Each structure stands twice: as C-alpha cells, then as structure tokens.
UniProtKB/TrEMBL annotation:
Domain PDZ: 99-171
Pfam families: PDZ_2, Peptidase_S41
Species of origin: Pseudoalteromonas undina
Higher taxonomy: Bacteria, Pseudomonadati, Pseudomonadota, Gammaproteobacteria, Alteromonadales
Keywords assigned: Hydrolase, Protease, Serine protease
Protein name: Carboxyl-terminal protease
Length: 421
C-alpha cells in the first residue's frame, strides 16, 4: 500500500544545464529526500523480496512495464535487474539506513557537514554552507573548491566519489583540503559530521512594509515555518504585508503535501495541481480553500535552474492562478511524484514514481520547467548571502563577498516589480 507521497528532489542531469547539485551527508540525502547516487544494490535481495518489489512495480509504477505474464516468481536475478534498470532515476529500493535517513530528513534533520556542492569544470565546488553546521563553524565558504578528502586527491573526480569518501570517513571525522581564490597552498579543515536541524524558511523585512521569505526545501514543517515568518513580519509592521517576495531559487523540492499547503496559503480558490498515474489513488486534484494570508497583496516569486519538483508546483500554481509574477530563469523541470511503499520486513521500502503532476492549466513541466514572466539569467546565489543583498549591509564584519554575489539582479527586479504593483 502506498504510504507517503513525495515530490522527489532532482537527481538526474538536466539536458540543457548538466550538473549535480546536492548536500553531502551520511547517506547522501538532501532535506529528507534520497539522492540516488548510492542507493542500495538489488543484486543480493531474497526472492521473496524480489517478488514483492515486482508486484509493487506492476501495481503502482507510473508506466506499464508489461511484466512477463505477471508471473513474478519466474523472474531470476538477472531478469529482475534488467527490469529494475528500466525504472526512472527517482525509483529506488531503500535499505534500513536509507529509509531511516529519509524519515529524519523529511522532519528537518540530517547528519552531515552542511555543505552544498556542485561540479563546476570537473571540480567539486561548495555553493552553499548551512548555518549552524560543522562547515559553517569551521569557516568553509561558498566558492571553496574541494581538492582532497582525507588525503584522497579528488580535484578532477566525479562528485559522487567525493561524496562517498566523506560518507565513509571513520568515526565521522572528515579532513577537507580546500583551494580558495586560486591560492596555491591548500587550506586544511578538520570537521566532524553531526546532526543538524534544518530551517526550511528564512525571512527579511523589505522597505515600505513588504517582506521576503526564502524557502530552501519543502519538509513536514515548511507550512508552519512560512506562516510563522509571515506573521512575525506582520507583527513587526503592525499591519498586513503590502507585498511579498518568495525565493525558491536552489530549492530542490520536497513533499507534495507541503507544496500544496503552502500554495493554499496565498490562494482564495482555484486548482493547485493535478496528479495522474495508473493506480487509482495516484489520480488526484488539489484545490485551494478560501483564505489568503496576504489578503491579496502582490507576490513575486524567484526561481532558477535549480528550482525543482515541489518548488515548481508552488511557482506554477501561483503563476497560473494569476496570483504572482515569476522572475528568474527556467526551472529544472521535474514533473513526477514518488511514493514510499513499505516492504514486508518493515525495515525497507520501495521509493517508486507513481504519478506525473500537471499545473493548473493542465501542462506537464517534465523536462521543460516553469517559464518565468520576467526572464533573467544569473549565476546561483548562495542563500547565506541573500540577506546581505536585501538589507544592503554585511551581517558579519569579516564576511567577504565578491561582486557577482552582490549583483543579485533577479532580486533587484523582483523588488522593483513588487513596488510597481
């Protein structure tokens, strides 16, 4: 039986902008949604579990793979592996550790270093450092290049290998060699993985009674955090917000339920999203309930090429219901929904693509993405520096920002549009 629906974060390479972008932690999970790079092998599964997985694929998978006369017991291991390989990149068997990690991260917890990395010119580059993390405390910065992990040289290595070295570090101790600003002598950082509590929403006050929130992912707590941050800004002003910028840049997704709930905060009525699949329970339409937390105040949404899945659901819902203007670059284009199906032993599960989602106008964004109303391309801006742009001041005297980080033209345009509405 399908247990939990998740709009899985992007894990494949986008055709027009090839990159892998995710946070490194114990099991390579990003805010609770499994990255598939090191999902468990199915080679050694028992025949009973293979039959159970085959049944679930036959019953729930979004596409009919035409299993051989439905005689699952006739499949041997090699045949099963060939069938399993036909699943999309988001469908995986999860062992006990991976399943526990998924639950922990869905609830805003993970164990790791607290860095988001991206492969840039075959070099593993840190693009974001999470607050209250070992990486932040050690002094790692956006733009740092990882050249070695525990003395393993990795400068031209695949990002998956870099992640595996960090994951396999004994006793959670990790030594990173870092090149910063093209320096010849590497900087050495000794860190320990630890459990980090993630905040999915941050806020800033804008001029003229407006506000800004950045939603970093969609977890079980996102709805509460969004409502709380908006209420805090309104309490500060003593009146309802006159406008709001919602920053979804670099948001890889999260749960379908969370995205729908957040969209409902800002819509009086209308269709939010529709899901369609082979299994009857995969066919659903989600509508907004009456009540707009902003009472009709204008909204501008920021997206970029790393905004995916649940982030795209929210952006498309607000755009197509004419509730918000979208600024930025074309989003990732992740238009499928995964479900978590527990297996009989109670310790493992199958994460399976069970539906495709469609925007209020009936469009699929799979491989396409959400098109902004105002297209502005810009290099990814780390979340830690967005507050500096908005407030036009440095949060810490010793913080160093380059010109590119300070030239957030997407945010500047969003503020301009907000003031004009």
């Amino acid at each position: 039986m399908i247990n939990t629906h998740i709009c899985q974060q992007k894990t494949s390479v986008k055709k027009r902008a090839p990159c892998f972008c995710f946070i490194l932690f114990v099991l390579l999970v990003f805010f609770g949604f499994i990255n598939t790079a090191y999902a468990s092998s199915v080679k050694d599964l028992e025949s009973q579990k293979i039959n159970e997985i085959l049944f679930n694929i036959h019953t729930y998978y979004v596409d009919d793979l035409a299993l051989q006369n439905s005689e699952y017991i006739e499949y041997n291991s090699s045949q099963f592996e060939r069938l399993y390989s036909k699943l999309d990149a988001y469908s995986k068997y999860l062992d006990k550790n991976e399943l526990n990690a998924l639950f922990n991260n869905t609830n805003g917890r993970y164990t790791g270093l607290g860095i988001e990395v991206k492969s840039i010119e075959q070099r593993t580059t840190i693009v974001k450092v999470i607050n209250n993390s070992p990486a932040k405390q050690a002094g790692l910065r956006s733009g740092d290049i990882i050249t070695a992990v525990n003395q393993h040289y990795v400068e031209n290595s695949p990002i998956d290998l870099v992640a595996q070295y960090i994951k396999d570090s004994a006793n959670g101790k990790v030594q990173l060699s870092i090149t910063r600003n093209n320096t010849q002598t590497p900087l050495i950082f000794n860190l320990s993985r630890k459990q980090i509590k993630l905040t999915s929403v941050t806020k800033q006050l804008l001029d003229s009674g407006s506000g800004y929130i950045a939603i970093n992912n969609f977890s079980n707590h996102t709805l509460h955090e969004v409502a709380l941050q908006i209420a805090a800004m309104q309490n500060h002003y003593g009146h309802s917000l006159k406008g709001l910028i919602i920053d979804l840049r670099d948001n890889p997704g999260g749960t379908l339920k969370s995205a729908v709930a957040v969209a409902d905060l800002f819509l009086q009525d209308g269709l939010i999203v529709t899901t369609k699949g082979r299994f009857y329970d995969s066919n659903q339409s989600f509508y907004a309930k009456r009540g707009d937390i902003l009472k009709g105040a204008p909204i501008v949404v920021l997206i970029n090429e790393n905004s995916a899945s649940a982030a795209e659901i929210l952006a498309a819902a607000l755009k197509e219901n004419l509730r918000a203007k979208i600024v930025g670059s074309q989003s990732f284009g992740k238009g499928t929904v995964q479900s978590l199906i527990p297996l009989g032993d109670g310790d493992t599960a199958l994460k399976l693509t069970t539906a495709r989602y469609f925007t209020p106008l009936g469009e699929s964004i799979e491989g396409i993405g959400v098109t902004p109303n105002v297209a502005i391309n810009q290099t990814t801006l780390p979340q830690t520096n967005k507050a500096v742009i908005i407030k036009n001041e440095q949060l810490e005297q010793n913080t160093v920002f380059n010109a590119e980080e300070l030239a957030d033209i997407q945010l500047v345009k969003a503020k301009q549009l907000l003031s004009m509405q």
